[in-house]
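Supplementary Note 2. Why include the ligand at all?

Several targets in our set were suspected to adopt different conformations when bound, so apo predictions alone were not considered sufficient. For every target with a known small-molecule partner we therefore ran a joint prediction. The input for DPM is given below.
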Amino acid sequence: MEGPFKYIREGNGKVTRVIRMGTRKSQLARIQTDSVAEKLKELYPDLQLEIAAGNVSSLLLFQIGEKSLFTKELENALERNEVDLVVHSLKDLPTSLPPGFTIGAVLQRENPHDAVVLHPKNAGLTLDGLPEKSVIGTSSLRRAAQLKKRFPQLEFENIRGNLNTRLRKLDEKDDYAAIILAAAGLKRMGWETRISQVLGPEDCMYAVGQGALAIEVRARDRDILEMVSILHHPDTVLRCIAERAFLKQLEGGCSVPVAVYTEMKNSVLYLTGAVYSLDGSDCLKETMQTNIELDNKVPESAEENVHVGITANNISQTALDAAERLGVVLAKILLSKGAKDILTTARQLNDAR
Ligand code: DPM
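The joint prediction is reproduced in token form.
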């Protein structure tokens, strides 16, 4: 029972491994980690869980709102066996994880769409009804590009900070008429009542992986991998693999104007993907589909069964391959139509701001 992991000896002499979860300190991160802890306890009532917060505050893969920084330091707590799993919003995880790490579970997706949160003085309005030149707060290039095109009478400005900070900036100042946030984050924070409008794909398509939680683990820790794998939600996994493969093939990071929309209907997976110039005036958008056969084909070796960072040994290999191929093929079509130029220009203009 020696080794890098933590064990406890219970009253009856039984020795149990303690599963340690790392979390960032933000309220959203804590809520997300707690919700996964609860699910694990339901499924494994004997599980000894510990949640480490703060001392692993560096476990953030991207600095949101900043340029997409990938700091090596971040996964160190996992690497050093200080924690065994970390809960993230899937949309904040890069499409390629560093060697040694994998996503061991992708949970059932919440509402993936973006939502409008109004300044209290605008209660009852929609984006269409706001006065001309109203300022909308968002730092997402993806949201700004789509909404500028769709609502040219409105203006868009950056808003920074975690969700609590943003809502406070909206309510307590007069800088913004409304802000745009993911419906899923608002729901998890218990702020669903602040949603005045959910944006459908005709107004604003969502970010790759938006609304899904992911559990990051050490790739070699097969026990933990197996333990969390039962939290995989097959439809969500397949949709998110297609979305992530699309983004990866485009060589987009977390802060590029790339948006997606996916659906799973009658064993067919549909993927719509788009790239935009910063003001939305240039746009390439296509939809493709693939049949999903949930056969029993299992991977030759567990290590081989990784799709855009996700390990899902309990889902059909054929289905995972088809989902990944869908994303790759759709990206190649957009690239053949000039997506690279649109994204390169957007990145350069954004960096110069
Ligand atoms: C990423 C983006 C944003 C987050 C870019 C995008 C939004 C940044 C902003 C990659 N990560 O969406 O185009 O609004 O300035 C983030 C949120 C959640 C996870 C908050 C949000 C919660 C929803 C979820 C920030 N990451 O998007 O409102 O779990 O999907």
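The pocket of DPM is lined by residues 64-65, 89, 91-92, 138-140, 142-143, 181-182, 184-185, 207, 210-211, 254 (CB under 6 Å). Residues 74 and 226 are 23 Å apart (CA to CA). Comparable summaries for the other entries are listed in the accompanying table.
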